[in-house]
Design brief:
The complex is a heterodimer of chains A (about 325) and B (about 300).
Chain A: E1 3-15, E2 26-38, E3 42-46, H1 53-60, E4 68-73, E5 76-77, H2 83-89, E6 90-93, H3 107-118, H4 123-136, H5 153-165, E7 171-175, H6 183-200, E8 203-208, H7 211-215, E9 220-225, E10 228-234, H8 235-240, H9 245-252, H10 293-297, E11 303-305, E12 308-310
Parallel strand pairs in A: 3-8, 3-9, 6-7, 7-8
Antiparallel strand pairs in A: 1-2, 1-4, 4-5, 9-10, 10-12, 11-12
Helix pairs in contact in A: 3-4, 3-5, 4-5, 5-6
Chain B: H1 19-25, H2 27-49, H3 87-123, H4 125-139, H5 143-154, H6 158-168, H7 171-185, H8 188-195, H9 200-236, H10 248-255, H11 264-291
Classes of the chains: A alpha/beta (about 325), B mainly alpha (about 300).
C-alpha cells in the first residue's frame, strides 16, 4: 500500500466579501484535514451538505488550491504538478449527469475529451478508445453519435464514468455519483463502479452523504462535520462500532426500506451548522446529544482509538455508551 | 457480480424536434425571416431592380409624386426627390447602406462585447471587476453625444458611422454574455473539462461558447436593428452618412423641408426602415423563443 493522494493540514477558506461596510465574511469549508488515499482502496468521505466533502474532492482534483496546508499527489505538491499530468492520474465523476455532459457535443466527443486535451492518438484512435470505454460501462456503440439529451439519467452517468476512465487513470474521484439518480439506477451504477474497480484495479475517493450507499463499496470511511474529519476508520469497524456521536447519528438516519417506520429520529435537531460562523469548541456540540462543558470550550483533536481515529473528548478516555 | 448490462428500464428520451421545424412552426420568426430575406435580396439585386442610377439628377423632373397619385407616372413608380433623382432606385440602394451598417456594427460590437463578457464571466474575481468597470463606463456615455463629438472632430462618413457605433454598442453583448457565461461556467461539464486538463482557451471556446451562442444570436439581431435605427437617427441629424449616399435616414432628413407638400418623400424611406427593423426584431424574438426559452436577455 502506498499513498496516492495525501492531504496534510489541508484548509480551504472562501472569501464571501461582505460589502464595503459589512464585516468580511469567511467561509471555512475545509479546516486542517489530514487524510491519505492508499492505492487500491475505496475511501468514502461522508457528511451532510456543507460539511466540506466536495471542497475536499475539488482540492484533490487540483481544481481548488488549498488556502493552507498541502495536497500531495504521489509525493509531489499538487500545485507544482501540471494540470495535464494531474488529469492523467485522476479523473472525476460528478453528481448530476444532467449538468456534467456538454449538451452540444456528441457522446463520443464527450468521452474522448480527456484524450483530445492530452493530445493522445489520432481522431480515429480517440473514437475507438471512446467506444471501448462506453462498452466497458455497458453502453452500446450506437450511442456514440447521440447527444446527451437523448439518453436517460443512468445512461448519462455511465457516459460520465466512461469519460473518467478513457485515459486509464489510477484514481477516480466520485462526487456523489448516485445522488441524482433513481434508486433502481443507483444500484446499477454502484455495481458498475464495484465491477470496474475489480477489473481495472482502480482507487476510488467516494464522496457521499449517504452511509447506506457507502457501505457496499468503501474499504475506509472518513466522516466530515463542518469542514473537519470527526472520525476515520475501516469501513467494517466504523459500521460495527461507530465512535463519534455524529457518526452514530448518521447511521441512525439511514432510511430502512420497511414501510411504516417513518423518518428515523437522529436526535440532532434542525440546527444546521453554519460554516461562516462555526461554534466555539467542538463544532458539533450544539447538536450533540452527549455534549459536556468541555466540548463548548475546547476543540477535540483527531486521536487514535482502536484502529481508527476519532475527534471527540468523550470517545478518547472511555467510549460513550451507545 | 456480473459485467454491467444495459437494462431495458433505462429507456432513452425521444429526440427533440429539429431546429428547422421549430423555426417553421414559429409564425413571427417565419414572417421576420421573409421580411429580412426580402430586404437582403433587394440589396443584393439593387443594380438589376433599380430603373435608374440613384445618383442621376434631372432638375426638370423634380418632386414628381408616386404612381398612385394623380400626377404620378410609371416612369418613376415612387416619384422623384427635390433633385429629380428616382426615388425607387434610391430606396432600393438604401437597403444596402442599412444592411451594411446593421451587419458590420453587429460584427464589431459583437466581437468586442462577447469577448469581454466571456472573459469576465469565466474568470470572475478581479478580471470581472475590471470588465464590469469598463461596461459601466461605457453605459455612462450617451451614444448620440459621443457620435456628435466624433463627427465634429473627424467628420462624418459611412466608415466613421460604422466604427463609432461598433465601438459603442457592445454593452448589451457584454452584459448578456457575462451572465450567460457565469451560469454555464458553474456547470459540471466545464469542471470536467478543467479536470481533464483542458486549457482555459479550450474550455472557453470548446465548452462554454457553444452553449452561450443562442444568447449571442438573440442579442445580435436586436442590436443590428437598433444600429440601423441609430444610423438613421444620426444621418437625420447630419452626423451620419453624408449626401449623396442614399441612406434611408438621410433621405428622411432631406425630405423634411418638403414634408407638407410631398409627404411620400418621408413616408417611403420611413416605411422601408420600419419594415426592416420590424423584421429583424421579429427574427430576434423568434430566435429567443426557439433557442433560449428560459433565458431572459
Amino acid at each position: 500500500m502506498s499513498a496516492v493522494i495525501e492531504a496534510i493540514g489541508a484548509t480551504r477558506i472562501f472569501d464571501l466579501g461582505g460589502g464595503l461596510l459589512g464585516r468580511r465574511l469567511r467561509l471555512h469549508a475545509v479546516t486542517d484535514v489530514d487524510l491519505t488515499v492508499e492505492k487500491g482502496e475505496v475511501l468514502a468521505v461522508v457528511g451532510e451538505s456543507g460539511s466540506g466533502k466536495s471542497t475536499l474532492a475539488r482540492m484533490m482534483l487540483g481544481l481548488l488550491t488549498p488556502s493552507a496546508g498541502t495536497i500531495r499527489v504521489a509525493g509531489e505538491d499538487i500545485t507544482r504538478v501540471p494540470r495535464r499530468a494531474l488529469a492523467r492520474r485522476m479523473q472525476p465523476v460528478f453528481q448530476d449527469p444532467y449538468s456534467s455532459l456538454n449538451p452540444r457535443r456528441r457522446i463520443a466527443a464527450i468521452v474522448a475529451l480527456p484524450l483530445t486535451v492530452q493530445g493522445i492518438g489520432s481522431a480515429e484512435e480517440r473514437r475507438a478508445r471512446a467506444v471501448a470505454a462506453l462498452d466497458k460501462v455497458g453502453l452500446p456503440a450506437r450511442h456514440a453519435d447521440s447527444y446527451p439529451s437523448q439518453l436517460s439519467g443512468g445512461q448519462r452517468q455511465r457516459v460520465a464514468i466512461a469519460r473518467a476512465l478513457v485515459t486509464e487513470p489510477e484514481v477516480v474521484i466520485c462526487d456523489e455519483p448516485t445522488s441524482a439518480l433513481d434508486v433502481s439506477v443507483q444500484a446499477q451504477i454502484l455495481n458498475l463502479l464495484i465491477d470496474l474497480r475489480r477489473d481495472l484495479g482502480l482507487t476510488y475517493v467516494f464522496i457521499s452523504h449517504n452511509l447506506a450507499v457507502v457501505e457496499h463499496l468503501a474499504t475506509r470511511v472518513a466522516v466530515m462535520y463542518l469542514g473537519r474529519i470527526v472520525e476515520l476508520a475501516d469501513a467494517a469497524q466504523l459500521f460495527a462500532r461507530p465512535q463519534h456521536p455524529y457518526t452514530r447519528a448518521l447511521l441512525d438516519s439511514v432510511l430502512t426500506p420497511e414501510p411504516g417506520l417513518g423518518i428515523p429520529d437522529t436526535r440532532l435537531g434542525a440546527a444546521a451548522p453554519d460554516p461562516v460562523d462555526p461554534p466555539a469548541g467542538c463544532g458539533f456540540h450544539p447538536r450533540c446529544p452527549v455534549a459536556v462543558e468541555r466540548c463548548r470550550m475546547e476543540a477535540p483533536r483527531l486521536a487514535r482509538l482502536d484502529d481508527g481515529q476519532v475527534a471527540c473528548h468523550l470517545a478518547a478516555p472511555a467510549p460513550v455508551p451507545a | 457480480m456480473t459485467m454491467p448490462v444495459v437494462l431495458p428500464a433505462e429507456r432513452a428520451v425521444p429526440a427533440a424536434p429539429s431546429v428547422l421545424s421549430r423555426v417553421l412552426a414559429h409564425r413571427g420568426l417565419t414572417l421576420g425571416l421573409v421580411m429580412v430575406g426580402g430586404v437582403v435580396l433587394i440589396a443584393l439585386l439593387a443594380p438589376l431592380l433599380a430603373p435608374y442610377d440613384p445618383y442621376d439628377q434631372d432638375l426638370t423632373r423634380r418632386l414628381i409624386p408616386p404612381v398612385w397619385h394623380d400626377k404620378g407616372s410609371w416612369l418613376n413608380p415612387l416619384g422623384t426627390d427635390n433633385l429629380g433623382r428616382d426615388y425607387l432606385s434610391r430606396v432600393l440602394y438604401g437597403a444596402r447602406i442599412s444592411l451594411l451598417i446593421g451587419a458590420s456594427v453587429m460584427v464589431i460590437s459583437g466581437a468586442i462585447g462577447a469577448t469581454l463578457g466571456l472573459v469576465a464571466g469565466y474568470f470572475g474575481g478581479r478580471v470581472d471587476m475590471v470588465a464590469s468597470l469598463i461596461i459601466t463606463t461605457r453605459l455612462a456615455m450617451p451614444v448620440v453625444l459621443v457620435a456628435l463629438a466624433v463627427v465634429a472632430t473627424i467628420g462624418g462618413s459611412l466608415t466613421i458611422v460604422i466604427l463609432t457605433l461598433g465601438f459603442l454598442k457592445w454593452d448589451r453583448f457584454a452584459v448578456v454574455m457575462r451572465s450567460a457565461t457565469q451560469q454555464v461556467r458553474s456547470l459540471d461539464y466545464v469542471t470536467a473539462a478543467e479536470a481533464a486538463g483542458a486549457s482555459r482557451l479550450r474550455v472557453l471556446v470548446g465548452e462554454i461558447l457553444p452553449n452561450v451562442v443562442p444568447h449571442l444570436i438573440v442579442v445580435a439581431t436586436v442590436e443590428a436593428g437598433s444600429a440601423i435605427l441609430l444610423e438613421a437617427a444620426l444621418s437625420f441629424l447630419g452626423l451620419g452618412v453624408q449626401p449623396p449616399l442614399p441612406s434611408w435616414g438621410l433621405m428622411i432628413a432631406e425630405a423634411k423641408t418638403f414634408m407638407f407638400f410631398s409627404f411620400w418623400l418621408i413616408a417611403i424611406p420611413g416605411a422601408a426602415l420600419a419594415l426592416l427593423v420590424l423584421g429583424i426584431n421579429l427574427v430576434g424574438d423568434g430566435l429567443r423563443d426557439v433557442f433560449a426559452p428560459d433565458g431572459r436577455s
